[in-house]
Amino acid sequence: FIEIEARNSSKSVMLYGHFDKQPHFDGWAEGLGPITPVIRDGKLYGRGGADDGYALFSSILAIKAIQQNGGSHGRTVICVEGSEESGSPHLMHYINALKERIGQIDLMVCLDSGALSYDTLWITTSLRGCAMIDITVDILEEAIHSGVGSGFVADSFMILRNILDRIEDSKTGIVCEALHVKIPEKRLQDAEKVAALLKEKVLERIKILPGVKPASDDYKELLLNTTWRPRLTVTGQDGLAPVEIAGNVLRASTSMRISVRLPPTLDGKFASDYLEELILKDPPHGAKVSTKRRTPGSGWSAKEFSSQLETSLQNSSKNLWGQEYLCFGEGGSIPFIKQLADYFPACEILVMGVLGPQSNAHACNEFLHIDYCKKITSVLAHTLNDLSK
Asked: How sure is the predictor about 285, in pLDDT bands with cuts at 50, 70 and 90?
């Protein structure tokens, strides 16, 4: 927790970042690694540089730039946490303990988001929530030869497939209607604008294998799918033997973890309650179905910017990139933003970051785009100076 006195301003600002990182992960390219910093083609490779190691340094450098160039800034508090990648379980304890020192906030800036390209300023206007549930299906007291048991009792994996069909259409990927929300008109317009500008570039953030088709041929629909619509992913499983040693066995049990991304305005607890009830209701074939819930997280949807912040961001984008900034929603969940937004309801919130196409946070070959990081730091400096008036 860092406090910096105001410089010719009565405003108050809070800057956020986190220093903890994801596990190392396998599959790094030759010469690269999670703890070996390497610069190639203007990119700094290594775990956590872009998510979110730069945030503290950008915050300090932005303040320093303002002071060295005769600008002004509000009283600034910088909060850097160490458990964001674990869902920020400790953050609000410390925010509450520091409540008096933080005081009233006019602007909060969260440097932990991304961009759809590196040729303009991208502002994050929404985040999806997340409901994670572990599902276990037990059918036998012990495993048995599949030649003996199959046909007498349903396979536990088949029962799990039936349960997943309650949540998701297995042909289209569309999740049950109860988890959808009405998408705000402004966000529909944002998606249409971004899709028209980027076209196929909207897919650059992910590396699809040649011949594999995206979920839609409509780029606007793809953007809405990954920002304002629920989607299910199976992220883990237990009970299935590795292929190379799998025998002809009808297994006694199968477990899997599902992660359901939720629309920004849907309550996470409601979604988790609904999913658990859907999973446990009327077990197929009378199987023993059990669940273990992870703490759900609600998403976040930004308020409209004040004219002062809007003007500042537009000027920064035009000066640094030569064009207007663009808005987009992040498909992931950053739980602390919703928590902080609820804790400081009166302040403006600006969310931006450096995680652009192929920056690969959480996975192999993560990199920080150095030039984009410099520009984001410059945007921060100009914003703090402009809003200090």
From this structure: very high
- Closest residue by Cα to residue 21 from 84, 100, 80: 84
Residue with tokens 């953050």: 91
Q: Which of 134, 121, 191 is nearest to 331 (CA)?
A: 191
Could you tell me which residues come within 8 angstroms of residue 254 by beta carbon, excluding any fewer than 6 positions away? 136, 137, 156, 157, 159, 160, 237, 238, 239, 240
Residue 389 identity (one-letter amino acid): K
Which amino acid is located at 40 in the chain? R
Distance CA 35, CA 72 (A): 37
| Buried residues in 130-142 as b, exposed as e (16+ CB within 10 A) | bbbbbbbbbbeee
Residues 143-161 pLDDT 10s: 999 999 999 999 999 999 9
* pTM exceeding 0.85: yes
What are residue 255's DSSP bridge partners?
A: 136, 238
Q: How large a percentage of the chain has pLDDT more than 90?
A: 93
The string of pLDDT tens digits covering residues 62-106 is 999 999 999 999 999 999 999 999 888 899 999 999 999 999 999
State which H helix or E strand residue 137 sits in.
strand 129-138
β-strand 326-330 against 122-127: which pairing, if any? Answer: parallel
R_g of the chain, CA atoms, integer Å: 23
pLDDT surpassing 90 at residue 332? no
Answer for the pair 263, 180: CB distance below 8 angstroms, yes or no: yes
